[in-house]
């Protein structure tokens, strides 16, 4: 009953905030909801002394929901599948080299760049953070968030090739980032796990290859099943079973659930739609997953806005938080610029494209979920606070301006 109560409150708030945004702010849905939730959080904090019961009860509601488990174990699977089912395999194949490099090599470059800069800059502000925790922050903040990126790209209207690069990278880089984060997290906890290049490489290969293989098998199996019946109601149920059952299998055999969902979504969205569905089934399936995408995005960004309530003394971290925004942006630039200049890609990257790739690399709920998964300790509060600063800046400032940045950067090249 508690779960139903919590989810009911969140759905009511998400619908109300969506209405307010559409009626008054007229911002992209996810960004508008998050801004209203943040404003509501600030109002709750200010009026906490006047209405202590209301503040306490609402804060308790947010604290009781395991954000890490809800996002990483449930919502992320639906959102990744919903995003991947609309990815065109032909477009993705054309951009496969940059997508693979940016979702692997770039994540590692960014992780170490963020860690090194934070380790040397933080003491200048009177804050000492051990390098291993700087590395942990680098790992959790480096992956671009597929949910934030896909939501904003719908509004940005960038070129198809550029959209595929950004969306493809964000869909695939979670597997690498989660493994790197998990390894570093165990080191911070004094784990005696084997830390070697071979062992970590094996973990990455197992996560990535295993996830892709399972997703492809599930996607092909579901597509062949749908081809024999072609009923839109049953087809929707089959895709739901792929997402929910696929995650259970991936979790049981310790492979990447996110990559499983991406692979299954791409197979069903391309092979399945082409060979197994009538136009009616395609239409219903597309609309169903678009609706799921919109509802869960609304709840997720509502959550991100209200996470402000659980961060103690966040105002005391404003300076290090602002510095970390610059550190993450510069590290993002390095993670794109170095591969572009050193790897002979088939298609050359212009300055405008690099600028859009850097500015369009949004951070979101995945980073917050990862930092919340840390055990309580002396460095968790500061890492949680600076992660929140980076994510909020990323979604609001970068999210609202990436379309204009793209239009200006690419139009200058055409002149």
Q: How would you sum up this structure, described in words?
A:
- With about 425 residues, the chain is an all-alpha fold.
- The protein has 2 domains: about 1-65, no CATH class; about 65-300 and about 315-415, Up-down Bundle (Na+/H+ antiporter like fold).
- About 80% of the residues lie in helices and about 0% in strands.
- The chain is built from 17 helices and no strands.
- It has helices spanning about 1-25, 30-45, 50-65, 65-85, 90-95, 95-120, 130-140, 145-155, 160-190, 195-225, 230-255, 255-275, 280-305, 320-340, 350-360, 365-370, 380-415.
- α11 (about 230-255) crosses α13 and α15 (about 350-360) runs antiparallel to α17.
- The relative contact order is 0.16.
List key phrases describing it:
80% helix, single chain, mainly alpha, 2 domains, Na+/H+ antiporter like fold, 415 residues
